[in-house]
Amino acid sequence: MCESLVSPDFSRSKAAVQTPLKLGIMASGSGSNFAAIATAISKNILPAQVQIVIYNNPKAKVAERAQQQGFPTKLINHRDYQNRESFDEEIVAALKAADVDWVIMVGWMRRATQVLIDAFLGRMVNIHPSLLPSFPGIHAIEQALDYGVKISGCTVHIVTLEVDSGPILMQAAVPVLPEDTAETLHARIQVQEHRIIVDAIAKLASNHVV
């Protein structure tokens, strides 16, 4: 397994005090990465707190996971908006109302517009199931299998306008086995996703001081 971590340097004074990182979670599916974050917070492994969980799919299991643990949730269904920009304007309003420091996209299946990126410039991260820059976009796992790669993995990166192209914060590699299907490879990648999303947020939190 290999991983890399790149993060900006922040100077601290001796009087600086670390405070919990206030997170806005965005997810479209089952929410397993969100669950990993929530578990790490509950075990005091991660100095953060979830301010809001935004989901765009009314059937997304992440909503149930979050509600069961008492986290605020908000459905913002992209189908209710005429364009991506107006959809993102509603998301920005919800995130700002929740007073979040960082936006964490975990299985968020909508492309961010400049509206959302400008509102949280350099303060949004995404987790992607490939070793970027290889296989950006959707169906990354299927693409890796089709190309016959021997190593795949996952990446946490800063969100920019170009899909899956922002600065890389952390990566983890997993072997691709001869008998792998999309489902088995995805399951093995998810194990590493759950680890590095927590580690990446912890790194961000370590640089968050007041």
Automatic annotation (TrEMBL):
<dbReference type="InterPro" id="IPR002376">
    <property type="entry name" value="Formyl_transf_N"/>
</dbReference>
<dbReference type="Pfam" id="PF00551">
    <property type="entry name" value="Formyl_trans_N"/>
</dbReference>
<feature type="binding site">
    <location>
        <begin position="31"/>
        <end position="33"/>
    </location>
    <ligand>
        <name>N(1)-(5-phospho-beta-D-ribosyl)glycinamide</name>
    </ligand>
</feature>
<dbReference type="InterPro" id="IPR036477">
    <property type="entry name" value="Formyl_transf_N_sf"/>
</dbReference>
<dbReference type="GO" id="GO:0006189">
    <property type="term" value="P:'de novo' IMP biosynthetic process"/>
</dbReference>
<protein>
    <recommendedName>
        <fullName>Phosphoribosylglycinamide formyltransferase</fullName>
        <ecNumber>2.1.2.2</ecNumber>
    </recommendedName>
</protein>
<dbReference type="InterPro" id="IPR004607">
    <property type="entry name" value="GART"/>
</dbReference>
<keyword id="KW-0808">Transferase</keyword>
<comment type="pathway">
    <text>Purine metabolism; IMP biosynthesis via de novo pathway; N(2)-formyl-N(1)-(5-phospho-D-ribosyl)glycinamide from N(1)-(5-phospho-D-ribosyl)glycinamide (10-formyl THF route): step 1/1.</text>
</comment>
<comment type="function">
    <text>Catalyzes the transfer of a formyl group from 10-formyltetrahydrofolate to 5-phospho-ribosyl-glycinamide (GAR), producing 5-phospho-ribosyl-N-formylglycinamide (FGAR) and tetrahydrofolate.</text>
</comment>
<feature type="active site" description="Proton donor">
    <location>
        <position position="128"/>
    </location>
</feature>
<feature type="domain" description="Formyl transferase N-terminal">
    <location>
        <begin position="23"/>
        <end position="201"/>
    </location>
</feature>
<keyword id="KW-0658">Purine biosynthesis</keyword>
<comment type="similarity">
    <text>Belongs to the GART family.</text>
</comment>
<feature type="binding site">
    <location>
        <position position="126"/>
    </location>
    <ligand>
        <name>(6R)-10-formyltetrahydrofolate</name>
    </ligand>
</feature>
<feature type="site" description="Raises pKa of active site His">
    <location>
        <position position="164"/>
    </location>
</feature>
<feature type="binding site">
    <location>
        <position position="84"/>
    </location>
    <ligand>
        <name>(6R)-10-formyltetrahydrofolate</name>
    </ligand>
</feature>
<dbReference type="GO" id="GO:0005829">
    <property type="term" value="C:cytosol"/>
</dbReference>
<dbReference type="GO" id="GO:0004644">
    <property type="term" value="F:phosphoribosylglycinamide formyltransferase activity"/>
</dbReference>
